[in-house]
Write a structure and sequence with these properties.
The complex is a heterodimer of chains A (about 300) and B (about 350). Chain A is of the alpha/beta class. Chain A has two domains: about 210 residues, Rossmann fold; about 80 residues, Alpha-Beta Plaits (2-Layer Sandwich). Helices cover about 30% and strands about 30% of the residues of chain A. Chain A is built from ten helices and 13 strands. In chain A, helix 3 runs antiparallel to helix 4. Chain A is elongated. Chain B has two domains: about 210 residues, no CATH class; about 60 residues. At the A-B interface, helix 2 of A face helix 1, helix 5 and helix 13 of B.
């Protein structure tokens, strides 16, 4: 399913939660949304799900407006930031509610998921921990084999083993069924493993929107050592995001002009010069950390 | 035309039945206690007192409503339970934020509301019909006792009560579609359900003050004629009073009255359905829906409290016959205080 967010603005009285957001999510891709608390991630997700109406602009899924089309929701799985269930319901009641609500509910898939996430069917949902509630939501929303999964902080409360299992399941879902995934998280490490595209939201505005592959190709790190210090001015040029120096060793993060810079550095006869991979976390720290953005909030431990 | 246009979705019915169970059970038990058990107690007492000439304790079970006049502990809870049934079904979904879960599922807003109303009305129907059936069996089983009513009266009571409670239920659902929490909806429904009688009493009390300074009016025939007309209108418009005060049916044809009630119930449901579909309550994360009506609501509250404050403040000050100046000052004071409090309350509510 293709998601189109077009010039979207959402205000709550005087507060602007989202400002002029435009993005597209291709069918069968995994799209990551990162941003600190209060950036507007949940608001954007609720608008995509048709739970909130935009003040301006629109969101369409496969060319249809979801808030006007409840049949479209039959193909969309949604994990909210906090799982709310009917307190008097047991886990088995929730299974029944979803099983009877979604025509595409797959008993086989349900059994597979139940083997991964072992939940007590007789337990009341109000007695479940946050992690167990999330596991229940994962089972409920994956068992009907959705064409689109909208996930708001889906791994919150999961232990590292379950978190890894969930991400694997998610990637299998995309590979086997071509499911489109729109995922919001604090955790860049997770997104690095699974995402095709990434958007950064900060104070309601979109700061960046790129393919992960392009981003990693574009931003590289040069590690080099020189017998003598480099002359001043060599590393003061556009495209250099960060320079760290430890003795005679330089660590230079470059966004644009990698080839030119490498060629120039070679003229200073480096003792060694290597191109190193850079993590998503480092890219974001260098690209935005210096601009006063709350980058530390994006980086989960 | 798809069948679900006329029939609620069975999964939603099951879900709504399950979440309203906690109110339905006490509602059922209460009505059973107030009707079937009361009848059984009366029969036991009758037999224990050696089969006297008449069976009590009611002035006559012929009109169940008559009993409620003298025993408000029956009528008021019946009303409160019905309001609770309606508010729990919709308001509680908002309070617990499960409405978001439901709206993310493949159901339209009409489906959601339809199921809630259907479950509520079925619960009221089951309660009244089961008790009517039990009472019928009890009456048949005790043929020797001179009951002051017959089987048709019992079923007539069940039907009348169903129609009145249906209106109260639909009206409360209507309020719940435009209000925030379950408590808020319940309180607003109570206010608006009793608004006609309350406003009439408020106006009459204040009017009496003003005309008492021109006492010849007080004895004028036209004054009493209009007073009776307005009093009847206020009483008829206060539907909960229908199960507490049966006297009005001596004057008006019950067929027309109950016919009007059926139309009003259907209208309340249709309006609730329209508003629930159109209003952006959940969509905008707001507590009150129609922001543009806020001023009108505030003005209404201020006027009502000014009218209440006038007589209340003079009574508290021990002034039995306040002049126009004193009364006007009391209106002004009560109105200003209410305006100030309402504004601050709304500001506080929004900030939290």
């Amino acid at each position: 399913m293709k998601i189109v967010v077009h010039e979207l603005t959402k205000t709550f009285r005087e507060k602007t939660a989202l400002e002029n957001i435009s993005l597209e999510v291709s069918p069968g891709s995994i799209f990551g949304l990162v941003g600190p608390n209060g950036a507007g991630k949940t608001t954007l997700i609720k608008i995509i799900m048709g739970l909130l109406l935009p003040t301006r602009g629109f969101v369409s899924i496969d060319g249809r407006l979801v808030h006007q089309d409840h049949r479209l929701k039959a193909r969309i799985g949604y994990l909210a930031d906090y799982q709310r269930y009917y307190p008097g319901f047991k886990v088995e009641d929730m299974f029944r509610l979803y099983r009877e609500s979604y025509e595409t509910w797959s008993p086989e898939r349900f059994q597979e998921l139940c083997r991964v996430f072992d939940l007590p069917e007789n337990a009341k949902v109000k007695n479940l921990s946050k992690g167990m509630r999330t596991q229940l939501a994962i089972i409920l929303n994956l068992a009907f084999r959705p064409a689109l999964l909208v996930l708001d902080e889906p791994t919150a409360g999961l232990d590292p083993v379950l978190r890894r299992q969930f991400l694997t399941i998610l990637m299998d879902e995309v590979a086997e069924n071509g499911t489109t995934v729109f995922i919001s998280t604090h955790n860049l490490h997770e997104l690095e493993r699974i995402c095709d595209h990434l958007a950064i939201l900060h104070q309601g505005r979109l700061l960046g929107l790129e393919s992960l592959e392009d981003l990693k190709q574009k931003v590289r790190k040069i590690q080099a050592a020189f017998a003598n210090p480099l002359p001043a001015g060599v590393l003061q040029r556009d495209g250099i995001l960060n320079v760290e120096q430890s003795g005679r060793v330089y660590s230079i993060t470059v966004q644009d002009g990698l080839d030119e810079l490498t060629a120039e550095l070679r003229t200073f006869k480096p003792l060694f010069l290597d191109l190193a991979d850079i993590s998503l976390e480092e890219i974001f720290i260098h690209r935005m950390g210096g601009e006063g953005y709350a980058i530390k909030q994006i980086l989960a431990p | 035309m798809p069948l679900n246009k006329y029939w609620p979705h069975k999964t939603l019915l099951w879900k709504d039945w399950k979440i309203s169970w906690s109110i339905f059970v006490p509602f059922f038990l209460f009505v059973t206690y107030a009707t079937t058990f009361s009848l059984l107690f009366a029969i036991t007492d009758y037999i224990a007192s050696g089969w006297p000439g008449f069976i009590g304790p009611w002035p006559g079970f012929l009109h169940f409503e008559n009993r409620l006049v003298s025993e408000p502990w029956v009528g008021i809870p019946l009303l409160l339970f019905t309001i609770a049934l309606a508010t729990v079904s919709l308001g509680q979904e908002r309070d617990r934020e499960t409405l978001g879960l439901l709206l993310a599922m493949p159901y339209s807003r009409q489906d959601i509301l339809f199921s809630k109303v259907a479950v509520g009305l079925v619960q009221i129907l089951i309660t009244l019909a089961a008790n009517a059936l039990l009472m019928t069996l009890i009456v048949w089983a005790n043929a020797g006792i001179p009951f002051p009513f017959g089987t048709p009266d019992i079923w007539g009571w069940a039907l009348r009560s169903f129609l009145v409670l249906t209106f109260i239920f639909c009206f409360t659902v209507l309020i719940a579609t435009v209000s925030g929490t379950a408590w808020g909806s319940g309180i607003l429904a109570m206010i608006f359900l009793f608004f006609p009688a309350g406003l009439y009493l408020l106006l009459e009390t204040n009017f009496n003050f003003w005309i008492s300074w021109h006492y010849p009016w007080f004895y004028a025939h036209s004054y009493w004629m209009w007073r009776n007309i307005f009093s009847d209108i206020a009483l008829l418009a206060t539907v909960p009073a229908w199960i507490m005060d049966f006297s009005m049916f001596g004057k008006y044809n019950p067929v027309y009255l109950y016919g009007a009630l059926v139309v009003l119930s259907a209208g309340a449901y249709a309006l609730a359905r329209f508003l629930f579909t159109k209003n952006p309550l959940e969509n905008n994360g707001e507590v009150l829906v129609f922001e543009r009506l806020e001023g009108i609501f505030k003005l209404g509250v201020v006027v009502c409290f000014a009218l209440l404050g006038g007589p209340l403040l003079t009574a508290l000050a021990g002034i039995h016959n306040p002049g126009p100046l004193v009364l006007s000052l009391c209106y002004l004071l009560a109105g200003c205080v209410t305006w100030f409090l309402t504004n601050h309350l709304l500001k506080w509510r929004r900030s939290t």
